[in-house]
Amino acid sequence: MTAPRLRVATWNVHSCIGSDGRHSPGRVRRLARAIEADIMALQEVDSRVNGRDGFEELGTALGPASAHCRTLRTPDGDYGHMLLSRWPIARWDIHDISVRGREPRSVIDGIIETGSGQVRVLSTHLGLGQRERIRQVAMIADLLGDPATATILLGDFNEATGFGPASRVFGRLLESVGRWRTFPAQRPLLPLDRIWCAPPVTAERSWVMPEVRHASDHLPLVADLLWPPGSCRNPS
What we know:
With 236 residues, the chain is α+β, with helices and mostly antiparallel strands. It has one domain (5-226): Deoxyribonuclease I, Chain A. It has helices spanning 25-34, 54-58, 130-144, 165-173; strands at residues 5-12, 39-46, 65-74, 77-85, 89-96, 106-114, 117-125, 151-156, 175-176, 193-197, 202-208, 221-226. α3 runs parallel beside α4. The mean pLDDT is 93.
């Protein structure tokens, strides 16, 4: 029996402002859809630019199912991140991982009803400070617990090397799909965006998409995941 395949992606969309200075949620939506992902995490989604709500415009890029977290709320609009799915999101929670004195941060923790069973997906955007990220990684590790069922963790971890807290901690709990340079998009040097999965889910392949470098300051990171039939037990 062929193992089910699941395509996942994470992309920091930089408020939908590209290297050409254009603010174009429509362009980001079109390019996100072209990735043909089943599940996608988007960071730096913004409703404060030109009176356009990025949450609404990007929310149906894969289909009707989405979960969002507006981590910053201002009189001009909101800012945060989203989890999109072409399958129903059975339930989702927002976990606050903010560190006092720093920008608010959160985790979207969703259960997605795929065609082959339920998958737990956690998406996030970590802080810029090293000490901040150490605390945030510890909080996410507590959320993960013992990931004995199909689990995916993805997002922008703001980690410039493969030796930071996210790589060390999540590398013990999960399997990385690979470390790709995603930032800055025009000349990628840093692997800020990452995807991990819990065995028996494994990565078949992963890649970045330099052809969309004009749309944001990050490149999308994409992975095709596989899992053996019968391994997707329902999370409790």
